[in-house]
Amino acid sequence: MARHGGGRRWYGKVIGSALGVTLLAAGAAVWTAQADTADSPSPRSTASAGPGTDAKPVAVTIVHASDQGAHGVNITIDDGPDPVWTPRVLDVLDEYGVKATFCMVGTQARAHPDLVKKVVAAGHRLCDHSVSHDTTMDRQSETYQSQQILDAERMITEASGGVRPMYYRAPGGAFTPYSRKLAASRGMRPLGWNVDTKDFERPGTDAIVATVQRELPNGPTLLFHDAGGDRSQTVEALRRTLPWLKAQGRTFGFPVR
Question: Which residue of the set 78, 79, 128, 226 is catalytic?
Answer without folding.
Answer: 78
